[in-house]
Design brief:
The protein has one domain (about 10-115). The chain is an all-beta fold. The mean pLDDT is about 90. Strands 1, 3, 4, 6, 7, 9, 11, 13 and 15 form a nine-stranded parallel sheet that branches. A six-stranded parallel sheet has the order 2-5-8-10-12-14, with no helix packed on it. It has strands at about 10-15, 20, 25, 30, 35, 40, 50, 55-60, 60-70, 70-75, 75-85, 90, 95-100, 105-110, 110-115. The protein has no helices and 15 strands.
Length: about 130
């Protein structure tokens, strides 16, 4: 999704020292440097990116396509496409992701749950053996 296309622009920011209480939804890109007490969810109709900086703290559920965490999250995280856990990431909750990049130093106190894409028997490629003496 993000490899071939340009990432969505970050159009919203909650600065360091600011606090939001309540659920928060966004479209395209959002960066959190402050504190959010509530759930944060991206709108599913457009690709989204969520950046949780080193100074940020969330108490609640997190959902977006591409999630980059370097701060603290107390609650479950759902990355529909990619989850990047940077060195100072601290998560207390279960993490669900399609792709995961975890840097040394990141901590998760919860289950890591990859989203597995089911492949039908017809969708599997036929294997041909190279070791054939004929």
């Amino acid at each position: 999704m993000f490899n071939k296309k340009k990432q969505p622009p970050i159009k919203s920011l909650v600065a360091y020292g600011c606090q939001i209480k309540g659920d928060f939804s966004f479209s395209e890109g959002f960066r959190l440097d402050g504190e959010l007490i509530g759930n944060i969810v991206s709108q599913a109709d457009k690709p989204s990116i969520l950046v949780i900086s080193e100074s940020a703290q969330i108490t609640g559920e997190v959902q977006a396509d591409h999630v980059i965490i370097n701060g603290r999250v107390d609650g479950p995280v759902l990355a529909r496409v990619m989850l990047e856990l940077q060195p100072k990431a601290r998560i207390n909750g279960d993490v669900t992701y399609k792709l995961l990049e975890m840097h040394q130093g990141a901590l998760v106190a919860g289950k890591l749950c990859p989203m597995v894409v089911e492949v039908s028997a017809e969708g599997k490629p036929t294997l041909k053996l190279a070791a054939n003496n004929a």
